[in-house]
Amino acid sequence: MSRDIDPDERDALVTIAHGAVVTSGAVSAQRALSTLTEFVLARGLGPVAYGVYALAWRIAQVLTRLVTFGSVPALQRFLPAAEDNDERSRVVGLAYVTTLGFGVAFAAGLWMLAPVLGARLDIEPAFVPALRLFGLLVGLFGLVMVIAAMFRAIGSARGEVLFNKLLRPSARLAGATIALALGYSVVGVAGAIVTCMLAVVVLGVPASVRSTGIVPRIRGIRGEARRFYNHAGPVAMSSLGKVFQNRVDILLVGALLTTVDAGTYNVVLVLISLAWIPLLSFNQLLPPVASDLYADDRMDTLNAVYSSITRLIVTTVLPFLAVLGVYGERLLVVFGPTYGRGYVPLVVYLGGVFVGSAVGATGWLLMMTDHQYARMALDWLLAVLNVALTYAFTVRYGLIGAALGTSLAIATQNGLQVLLLRRFEGLFPFDRSFLRPLAAGGVMVAAMLAVRASLSGPAAVAVGTAVGLANYLLALFLVGLDPRDRLVVAELATQYRETIAETLVR
């Protein structure tokens, strides 16, 4: 069966899967660094001060999603198709100028609004200076994202991994650790993180020029601006809509509930971020591959790749969901006894993560097939609905309501994007082969629940995870992998064996 797979499809699958393997380790390291940072801060600051930090940090994160104004997807769209290096330089120059301009505007806006927000939320005084400092961080994060996007657009997973997945969270961990070691609290932590991130930007821009050969240029960008912003503008508006879909929860928790609730919900989001690793990893090199296939009108190949990659995402995300769903409460209390009450919101949120992962790269495919305006309209339609639902749920159900509103928004958004892709381009990933990993996942969850019922303490998490994964792999072997999945595994195994052998010979 693997011999019947189209060569273009084979190359695309192996390219994306290789990027996922390279990225998954880095994304896992990124999440580990971020989780360690939150652990250090939660333990070092205490529940109240950590809640202040968490709220200021999440507000900055919301703006970070907007600060590039769609430049990152625009780089994925236009750099691979650029005719020469001059065009690449102009596109990158536009991305830098756009991000820097919005970064300055956001920093100024937070500087002025911080006292108003502090008074409205009736929160600790440290919130105002911390938020002002994090305003500076927004632009710095945006510049790092542009640097990483350059590497990603030219097909270099390693460069994107280094800057976006390793250096960015490492700088935050270093700043937090240094500040706490010196006895500083929330404001000192914010200042130290900003300083460390500035160092990453100062070193990263010239390093990206040397590595990619692309020198950002401002001269001549006016001719590129219309095409660039025609793509980036709707994407930016979509990002703004998505903020109201899946980031309004933390803002409403801070506004409607307590500072401790904000800290608890932040820890929930830290664990949730681990469950997004498979989707992020496989989406690493899918956009440029999809853009090339779409430009060449190879839609059958694109649909086959979309289906195969989505099935691989489902297969790899199920263990994350099982561990967090079964052992989430015991993982939460590692950050402190206070945070154990976030278990039910965690489980509710995981429902949205499952749907968001199970449909694959719907958002990216809409953008790579030039349907960014349709995605923008959908994002805003659901944004309004999500704000209303999340507000009502949070007022009535507290932390559980915040998670429920966001989970419903994620599920609805991705479900509708699947329908749009089918309507516009005929792309649809699902068939009976998806039942195989789902059946194996059921076996895995049953095994983990059995271990949880018989063991307690940290040993239950370690033993249960090992037993669950063993049962999952055995079940997958028994039900059988799809031929394309076997092809990907075989091709990558051959590549890595050859690479290791060559390294040992040297």
How would you sum up this structure, described in words?
This protein is mainly α. The chain is 84% helix and 0% strand. Helix 1 runs parallel beside helix 13. It is globular. The two termini are 37 Å apart. The model has no long low-confidence stretch (mean pLDDT 84).
Question: Outline of this structure?
Answer:
This protein is mainly α. The chain has 20 helices and no strands. The longest helix is centred in the N-terminal third of the chain and has 39 residues.
Give short descriptive properties of this protein.
0% strand; 506 residues; mainly alpha; 84% helix; single chain
Instruction: List segments where confidence is low: pLDDT < 50 over at least 5 consecutive residues.
Output: none
Computed Rg:
23 Å
Helix content: over 70%
Derived from helix and strand composition plus strand pairing, the structural class reads mainly alpha
Question: Mind summarizing the main beta sheet?
Answer: none
Topology:
Layout (H helix, E strand, L loop, with lengths): L6 H39 L1 H18 L6 H8 L6 H37 L5 H27 L3 H25 L4 H27 L8 H26 L1 H9 L2 H17 L1 H6 L3 H10 L3 H34 L10 H16 L3 H7 L3 H26 L1 H27 L9 H20 L3 H22 L3 H23 L1
Helix pairs in contact: 1-2, 1-6, 1-10, 1-13, 1-20, 2-5, 2-10, 3-4, 3-5, 3-8, 4-5, 4-8, 5-6, 5-7, 6-7, 8-16, 9-10, 9-16, 9-17, 10-13, 10-14, 13-14, 13-18, 13-19, 14-17, 15-17, 16-17, 18-19
